[in-house]
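ok here's the first one, seq then struct tokens
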Amino acid sequence: MKTKHRNRYLRKVLKNLARDDPKTKEAVLAGFNIGDEDEKMAQLAMSLVTNKHVKILCLDNCGITSKGAHLLAYALGKNTSLNHVWLNHNKIGSSGADAIASALTTNRTLSTIGLSNNSIGNHGGKALLRALKQNYSITDVFVEGNRMSGRIEDEISRICYGEETDEDSDEIYESHFNCNHQSVIDDFDAGTVAGSVVSKTYVARTLVSIREVDESGHDSDDDSLSSSSLSDDEPLDMDFTCFYQKEKKSKFSKLKSVTRLMSRKKVKPGLQEVRLK
């Protein structure tokens, strides 16, 4: 169909819907890119609000976004004649699916709705799932090709087929998913922090432990370092050269003190070697 004829056909359908033409039972606009035209979408939505004769609405592959889905949701909440609505291959997303789900809680004439390939995630899928638990007139919902989990799709299909569903299954799945996802994030953060940041209080406790093992009897005024003297809010000098220098100096001081002691007692060289060993 040429562009000129397509535009003429679109204007005719919208006009018939606005007039509530009794002969217009179907509105097939698949492939018409009306999703980018706010005026066309608003005109279509307002026509559906008051129309009492149209039974089928086909808007597959019309470029409808979440904004257009909100307009259609308002119309579906008011319309009392539509039985089948097809919105496949659009871009309504979870936000648009959430709006449509709200309309389904009040609409009691729809029996079929197609939402395949609309980039609907788990949030939108759960909104539809909750709406279907309150709407018993819908028998078919098509949600294939979206980003929602397979478990949510199965729950939607079971409700449409009249099978019993576990009321807590969705919450259990959500909790399980969030816990697993959060544990991965926590592990990653912990590994990153452990590899890049050293706690100042931890360093202080480590140095105190090393000093306690040392039996050299250092002067507490020179070498004492308590964990309370460092706080995590103060900058930390990560250079431990001074610590090793003090240790090295302490060994020489011990040797010097032993030598002085032996010189006072006039220890023989042979005995001195034994004591040094």
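and now the second one, same deal
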Amino acid sequence: NVSNVSNVSNSPISSEASAAAAALANGGVPASDMDFDTHVVGKMGAGYLWRVGVGGHDSESEHAANTITRLRQSIAYDVHTVLLDEQHRIDRVLAAEETFLEASFASKTNDLASEDSDDSEDAAMEMMQDHHFKEEVSETFLRCIKENISQENVVIELNGLKIAEDKTFADCARFILTTCLGLCLPAPGGVIAEYQGLYPEDRPANLRKLLKRTHAKLGAWASLLQKFLKNEDDQIEVLLTLEEFCGAEGDFEDTGEFGAEFVAIFPQLLQAMYDLDILTEDAAFAWAEEKKHASESEKKFLNLAQPFLDWLENAESESDDD
């Protein structure tokens, strides 16, 4: 816009420059060559439309605008980075869980390879469902402890979970017991950060202190366990699960839990369960009778429990004599 050429600078414009500008404005060619700074006045001096700010603060306004733009870009980058980090964390957790499930699935399916393929798939699927239910019961139980929920409401929540997953009272009792025992020792790797504070930081110094912790935990939750142990068969199921927990087998294989710590106090553990009315005499003898027909390798915990079973027999004899 030639009319604005005079606004480009406060310095006087030469007559030669004015004539050249006039010739360009009329569509002609300047009479003489001119040395134009095309960066400032445009090609052949045709000019630019310059926006001159009030008070001459164009550079400051432009600097402020650039600063705001950079801040916005920086904030957007930081938010994007945080979101990426969180997504990566979630991805790692999901990948670890998926790896565990796939490894467990592969292990179980290999063991079942000799059976009919349909039976193998059903067994593997049941194994995955049991693992899922175990985790659900454990996390529900831990959340109730953390939030100090009354035992009556804990029963309601676990019953709802049992119905939703089509499980039995014994299934709930099995994993309540093993989670309760786990709280006697440091948190295993599979426990989420939210509940790790419920676990002690260190192992007990000796077996006597481990037994003391065990008795305290079982005493605190004995009444809850009793509500899910409806009959003798349920108690036998719990004892079989206790074997798996201590032997890191079945639902406890490769979970990182510390059930093996209770092997050394297995008879005392059964004694504590009996004293707290979690285990009855009849259920203990029925479990022992069932294990008598197992292979020698499967009688490990029956042999460990023998001092407790002998004590029960003697107590029963004394009671009969009275």
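notes on #2: The chain has a mean pLDDT of 81. The two ends are 121 Å apart (CA to CA).
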